[in-house]
Amino acid sequence: MTGATGDKTLGDRAMLERIEAAAEFVRQVIPPTPHYRWPLIEDRAGCEVWIKHDNHGPAAAGTAARGAVVYLSRLMAARPGLEAVVTAGVGNHGRAIAWAARLGGLKAVMVVPEDGPDDPWPSWVEVIEAGEDVHEAFAEACRIGIERDLPVVPTFHPWLVQGAAGATLELLRAEPALDTLYVPVGTAVAIASAIAVRDALGAATRIVGVVPEGAPAFADSFWAGRVMTTPTARSVARGLVCRIPDRTAVDIIVGGADRLVTVSDAAILEAISLCLSGAKTVADGAGAAPLAALLTEGPEKAGGPVGLLVTGGNLDRALAAEAVQAPLGANSAGGPS
Predict the structure, then answer these.
(1) Which secondary-structure segment (H or E) carries 107?
(2) What domains appear along the chain, each with residue ranges and CATH number?
(3) What pLDDT score was predicted for residue 108?
């Protein structure tokens, strides 16, 4: 399903110039990340697969870190003398903002859900626990922002999208023949940036979003063509847990994605384990979700060659222990096991 109109094959020069300018700025602090084909991954998937290792970026949150650098640099330019920012997050968004804040000499106030992972935060981050999920945590971040007169960094914003776009730009420039690119959908910054790059380049790559079965709000919104919320949302991929999608993000996804795929927690755990054994890389739940989707759909649906955007490697200890015990092969729809 693609709601985009007009001929995209010629690209969008103005959009491409904005994306390239942001990418050039980001490269001052984040070098390009590699992309590789891994034989064991391709054996399991049954097709040609390029993994974009953006989990190798700063704070193991490369895609989000790109966006954080652009957002905070522009915020600091607009607010001279800024000393701190506040936001919420359990996934790569929070880690990326914390890293970029230090880069800019800022203090980061991070609001996390009360049942979040127990992995430590850097000493320059003030961590506050509040709420049952990221939405309630973000509401508390907004309250703190008003109380302390601090800017609240949103989880979705055009500046974040422009910065994050560098990951897909690097991949599609190097591999322009990609038929399908799987992208995790949590804040929706990564998939919005992938759509923007694809359209700016005039590429034919199909962008496929991935969400957990236990947090299907973005998938429900895509197929309905409007924002759909869910009363609860849970998954081992905490960075993909969303029950109230951003309206602008939904419009972008409906207009530019080919489809959204839901994957089980078992498939995500298997993909984390396969990333470790087959691609020698640490992927968190969000970063491994694209591989989970590819194995769930199979090569006939995925086409080929296929790209997987591994957005982050913030794998907490408890989930890592669970993933390495996951049986391999149970969730694959295609390719030899």
Answers:
(1) strand 107-112
(2) 13-61+158-324 (3.40.50.1100), 63-148 (3.40.50.1100)
(3) 97
